[in-house]
Specification:
TIM Barrel; 17 strands; 366 residues; binds magnesium ion; Enolase-like, domain 1
């Protein structure tokens, strides 16, 4: 099964409500979509959003990496020697994890179709459905609590609340208000997106512990490169600490695991460079007794379909942050995973189960 053609096109979908974190505000979900065609007629799909402030990938850099470096390497190669191809994909260019991830998921789509299995079963098939949390963007305490209540009313029972953008006293007030309004049965996890110093984080988290706000975990309290700070926070509080932006590669995961700098790891295909690398990170973490979440950037149902297939395939992945497609004003993907509020189910079709995607001009490419 030789790789015959690698094409890309752009998509753009507005968000229902701006997505606001300590790092950025997003109003439009843009992406480069990858379509890989094999000589036996199988077609595989992938997606890469430009998340410059986190991964460094822009629309232009994703296209350039794919067309100028990855495509010449993959074209006319036999996909059944996939260890060779995934190894090559990780070494043929440094960085560019989102470009690599989009190609990697399209290759896995073709491979699992060849084996006539849905991708999550090709990778292990541990679970058949998943439940996602829903993210509350940073706004005033009242607006955040209103949003939280409306998400609970529409069927979600785990909230991921963005913090770290303002003074910690403001964050604590927001969490207090949300907890007061949603009650004690709802799980609340926080994501500071690198917005705190280690000292801020320790102070804020201890205060929340003393106020019995029952925070399940706190994601990436400190700067991505500040592993000492991350460890200091992890060692100083009872609340679970999750590494997100600190872990892109398997080597970074190994470093965090070796030094016990975090209790949990958030794997994203767009940071890891795809499913092949994400599996290595998960296996390292599992070996060290550290559970993983799989999350995403602001992606359409295409990228999340690949991430969800991966997440469902492994026992050690126990948390899922797949709300991004629910934040979009339009669904541009034909096929793929289905949402029933928080519950995600998989198509029975082999591979990702994607039939086509609508491009930025409004035309479906199939
Ligand atoms: Mg995060």
């Amino acid at each position: 099964m030789n790789i015959e053609q690698i094409e890309t096109f752009r998509t753009a979908v507005p968000l229902i409500k701006p997505f606001k974190t300590a790092l950025r505000t997003v109003t439009m979900a843009e992406a480069v979509v990858v379509k890989i065609t094999c000589d036996n007629g199988l077609v595989g799909w992938g997606e890469a959003p430009p998340t410059v402030v986190i991964t460094g990938d822009s629309l232009a850099s994703i296209e350039s990496a794919i067309h100028h470096v990855i495509k010449p390497f993959l074209e006319n190669k036999n996909l059944l020697n996939y260890e060779l191809l995934f190894q090559g994909l990780s070494t043929i260019l440094v960085g560019n994890p989102s470009a690599k991830a989009a190609v990697d998921m399209a290759l896995y789509d073709c491979l699992s179709q060849f084996c006539r299995l849905p991708l999550y079963q090709f990778l292990g098939g541990y679970k058949h459905e998943l439940e996602t949390d829903f993210t509350v963007s940073v706004n005033s305490a009242e607006e955040m609590a209103d949003d939280a209540v409306s998400y609970i009313q529409s069927g979600f029972n785990v909230l991921k609340v963005k913090v770290g953008k303002d003074d910690i006293s403001v964050d604590i007030e927001r969490i207090r208000e949300i907890r007061r309004r949603v009650g004690l049965d709802i799980k609340i996890r926080l994501d500071a997106n690198q917005g705190w110093t280690a000292k801020d984080a320790i102070r804020a988290i201890r205060k929340m512990e003393d106020s019995d706000l029952r925070i399940e975990l706190v994601e990436q309290p400190v700067k991505a490169a500040d592993l000492e700070g991350l460890k200091q926070v992890t060692d100083s509080v009872d609340t679970l600490i999750m590494a997100d932006e600190s872990v892109f590669t398997a080597k970074q995961a190994f470093q965090v695991l070796k030094t016990r700098s975090a209790d949990l790891i958030n794997i994203k295909l767009m940071k890891a460079g795809g499913i092949y690398q994400a599996q290595i990170i998960n296996q390292l973490a599992e070996t060290c007794g550290v559970e993983c979440m799989v999350g995403s950037m602001i992606e359409t149902r295409l990228g999340i379909t690949a991430a969800a297939h991966f997440a469902a395939s492994k026992k050690n992945i126990t948390r899922y942050d797949f709300d991004a497609p629910l934040m979009l004003a339009k669904d541009i993907v034909d096929g793929g995973i289905q949402y029933n509020n928080r519950v995600i189910t998989f198509p029975t079709a082999p591979g990702l189960g994607i039939n086509g995607v609508i491009n930025e001009g409004g035309v479906q490419v199939g």
